[in-house]
Each structure stands twice: as C-alpha cells, then as structure tokens.
C-alpha cells in the first residue's frame, strides 16, 4: 500500500540523519515528562521510534485518504452561507480524519493534549500532507495559531483555546492583511478599542484571510489611536462568532480547498495577546516566521507530487517509438527536477532544525530564569540561533516556493498537451504552486528579509570551517567549486557595500541572496554525499550548476543594470 513516508527514500534519509538530540531533550525536560505522561518517550531512541511510527501513520493517511480526495475537493471548493464558511465535503472528512488520528496539536504541550513533537517532525508531516493536497495543508498548518497562543497567551487563553484545537473542534486563522496593508503590514488600520470596563473589541475589514471562518482568529489591529506605524499595533485573539461576518470567498487560481475570506469585524469581543504595541514587531513576526516555514514545506510537498507525476507520465508515454523518459532532453529535465527537489529538502530540514533549536533554547532560558539559575550562556546561543533563523527562514521560503513553480511548470511541460487538461493531476499542482511565492510574504519580501544577514555575512564561521574541511575523491573538486563561489560572493559583497547606494543594494540583493543560498545548500549536500553514495550525483549537479549560476550573479551585479532605474520613466513609457 502507498505510503508518503516509506515510499520516499529521501524523506526517510532526512529523518534518519536529523540532529535533534538536544532539541528533544529540552522539549522532554530531560525525559522527566515520561514521569507524568506514560506515552512520553523515556529516552532519545524511544522518541525517534515514536516519531517514525507517527510519520508512517501520516504517510498512510496522506497517500490513501487525503490524496484520493484532492481532485474532488479542488473541483467542489468551499462556499459561504449566512456569513459562515461551509467546507467542501472531502475537506471536512480530511479534517475529521486528522483529528481522530490526534494530529491537530503536533507541537502543542502535553498538558493541553498535544504531542509535544519537535517542529522538524511536524514539518515532515506538512510536506506529506501538502504532497497529497496542498490546500489542506493550510488548515493543518494553522496549528501555528495555537502555538502562538501557547507561547505568548495567558493561562486563560491557553485553557480556552488549546484543548479544543487538539480535539479538532477549533481551527485557526491569522488575520493580518487588509486592502491597503499587504506586504506593508505597518499600514494595518483595523480598529481595536476598549469599553469602560477595559474589555477589547475589534471593528473593521480584513481580506485574503485563509480559513477566515475558523473558530479562533488572531487579529492584528491598531490599538493606539493616532499611531501610524507598527508600534501602534497589537495582536488579539477572538472567536469566529456572529460578529465576524465572512463577506465573500475569493474565487482563485488554485488551492481551492483552502477558503480565502474577506472578513468584517462588527465590534467583535477580543482579548489581548501578550503586551500592547508588540503585535507586529514581536508576535506576528514569530507567527509569520513559523508560517513561512510551513509554506516552504507546502512548496516542497507540491514539488514532490509534481516530480512524481512527471516521472510516472514520462515512463508511460511513448513517442518516436520509445518512452519519452529515454529522450535525453526529457531525462535531463527530470534529473534537474530531482536534484532541485532533494537539495531543497536538505535546505528545508536544516532550517527546520535551526528553528527548532532556537525555539527550544528560548524555552530553556525561560526555565533557567524561573529556577534562578545562570542563563547567560544559553541566551547567547539563543541569540545566535535567532540570527541564523532570521536568515535561513526567508531564504528557504524564497528558494522552495520559486522551485515549486519551476518544478510544476516543467512537470506540466513533460505531460505535453495532456498536462494542460484537468484530467491530469499536474494541472492542479501547477495552479496550487503559484500561491507559495506570494503569501506569507512574496519572494521579493523574503529577499528583503534575508538581505541583512547576507550583507552581514552571518554564516561566515560556518562557511569558513567547511572551506577548510578535507573531502575525499570526486568531492574534492566540488569543495573547490564551493570555495570559488565563496570568493565570488565576497568579491560581490565588497563591491556592493563599497557603493553605499541604497537603490543598488536593493537591486543587487537577489543576486547576493542567491549566492549565499548556493553556499549554504552546497555544503549541506556535500556533507550528505560523504555518507550516501547516491548523493554524490546530486551534489555534483547542484554544485556545478551553482558555480555557473554564481558567475552569472556576479556578472549581473557588476554590469550595474541598476543604472537603468534612473531611466525607468523613459523605459516604461
Ligand atoms: C490565497 C491567499 C491566501 C492568503 N492568506 C492570508 C492569511 O491567512 N492571512 C493574511 O493576513 N494574509 C493572507 N494573504 C495575504 C498575503 O499574505 C498577501 O497577499 C501578500 O503578503 C502580498 O500582499 P499584497 O497582495 O497586498 O501585495 P502588495 O503588497 O501590493 O505587493 C504587490 C507587488 O509589489 C511587490 N512589493 C511590495 N513591496 C515591496 C518591497 N518593499 N520590495 C520589493 N517588492 C515589493 C510585491 O513583491 C508584489 O510583487 C493571502 C493571500 C492569498 C492570495
């Protein structure tokens, strides 16, 4: 029987090569959780065994329950009745099934009924669910709403929302975007006000809200009258009660199973999450970074599905007297897709582990403070991990979402005319992929977010250590290529910073981020090639292409095409 975990050797490879021992130990409070909960792991190998069992269950559900419903969900879509969302039948069945399998509180603490799993394991689930039906991942991935309440909410909020989340009675929504506040969330206007008793209420409109008909909404709102920027915004939790009206569902290109809502808040009772004024700068940034990782997993799942469809079709379809998989141009496209898929997976799970470590170190610092113990050393590690996450999360979202579009585009191309028809799954996958580089911040905004860390060369220690490492056999040549890319990067970095021109920095940012991503991913796959022979092929193609790409990036930076911006009016007229 199909299983999206066991039938994917590369996903299993990533699972078997995780470095999460410290992460799990902190999450399990050095395995003292096992004294309280008889299903908590007793040691690291017990934890890994448990994760594998659950991943196999998700692999089974994804392949045999969710995937067979995906086409119908896409066709049916959702609807609105009396201001409320009515889910497609297949979507409802999927959600019930996931809740019955106790998968709706994967990272949640055990005291609220959650599994207390690391984020990295949750991301492996997200990849598999997305491979089966990308639109379902949006609601499955909105467990992040519960995690934000768990992290920043007060005890009442946690008790009110979290157990029902885990039970599958509540789903969440993240209500940030407004007609005049998209990429620029500092422009949010939705009004939050207090009555004489100090209770909060929300009034205004949000648009493009995924699962806006959900039972728990986290809403970014302007709580400080007269303020204009992000410091006047706070985050609120509210119920999706009758004061929250779904005015319309968007009629969109893809992810039809995911209801995208325009919402009207009519004096909706709400409670403040954390502190006033910290809504955007602290809580939403945290939530969005988590959601960006989730969308990266969604993009990876779509890429896997598209690649699998392309290989299957290329084996079955014959032209010129042979299966098209044997035609070199087609074979080469498939190899390119596979290499991108696997290197993206390496990048994704590496970033997930950094995010996991950052989150767990943060928890540990809080615990040490509460116990009156010394916490400065762990705090330094937390700050360093945060800087790395702030770089790797947007890079991963940018690379994986752009790749999902390219892979699904190429997979459709391999289907020829058939790919353009609704009879073939690839048509849906190509539509679903298109959103991944738009929401949770467009690719352009991911580049903006990553560029500070790239300009600061914050991975320099890591890259320098790898540059000194001795690799064997054919890997020596590839290590040499990576050293060459590093030189190109440093040369371009000096060139850009010497200019001290903001416009030039903005235009060159994409090339610099590309160069940095080749280096980080290149060393990841080189290390993998040391322990797995098949990965030598993957590393060879990735790093060879990266060197060619790096030379193009340098060329693009140094030809100073940005000077065209000075003549934009004449060119665009
Ligand atoms: C299907 C769907 C689901 C969504 N779900 C949610 C949700 O659940 N919750 C939520 O709050 N929002 C949601 N959104 C909103 C989504 O996050 C925004 O659409 C996205 O952030 C872009 O904002 P915008 O559409 O206003 O585009 P704009 O901000 O108007 O951007 C238009 C273009 O300008 C570019 N641009 C803008 N500023 C810059 C800059 N500084 N540098 C470089 N380029 C720039 C952008 O890259 C883009 O190409 C969803 C959107 C869609 C389509």
Features:
11% strand; 11 strands; 60% helix; binds flavin-adenine dinucleotide; two-stranded antiparallel sheet; 7-stranded mixed sheet
Kindly summarize this structure in a few lines.
The protein has 573 residues and is of the alpha+beta class. The protein is built from 19 helices and 11 strands.
Give the topology.
Elements: H1 9-16, H2 21-27, H3 33-36, H4 44-76, E1 79-81, E2 84-86, H5 89-100, H6 119-132, H7 134-141, H8 143-152, H9 155-166, E3 172-175, E4 191-194, E5 200-210, E6 216-222, E7 233-239, E8 244-249, E9 260-272, H10 279-316, E10 318-319, E11 322-323, H11 328-370, H12 376-414, H13 425-433, H14 443-455, H15 460-468, H16 475-499, H17 502-531, H18 534-558, H19 568-572
Parallel strand pairs: 3-6
Antiparallel strand pairs: 1-2, 4-5, 5-9, 6-7, 7-9, 8-9, 10-11
Helix pairs in contact: 2-11, 4-5, 4-6, 6-7, 6-10, 6-11, 7-10, 8-9, 8-10, 10-11, 10-12, 10-13, 11-12, 11-17, 11-18, 12-13, 12-14, 14-17, 16-17, 16-18, 17-18
The structure holds flavin-adenine dinucleotide.
Counting DSSP H or I runs of 4 or more residues, the number of helices is 19
Tell me the fraction of residues in β-strands, as a range: 5-15%
Small molecules in complex: flavin-adenine dinucleotide
Query: Total number of β-strand segments?
Result: 11
Order of helices and strands: HHHHEEHHHHHEEEEEEEHEEHHHHHHHHH
Specify the overall morphology.
Answer: globular
Q: Helicity level, as a percent range? A: 55-70%
Question: What structural category characterises the helix and strand content?
Answer: alpha+beta
Q: How far from one another are the termini?
A: 59 Å
Largest sheet, strands/sense/barrel: 7 strands, mixed
Please tell me how large the radius of gyration is.
24 Å
Low-confidence stretches: none
Calculate the mean pLDDT score and round it.
97
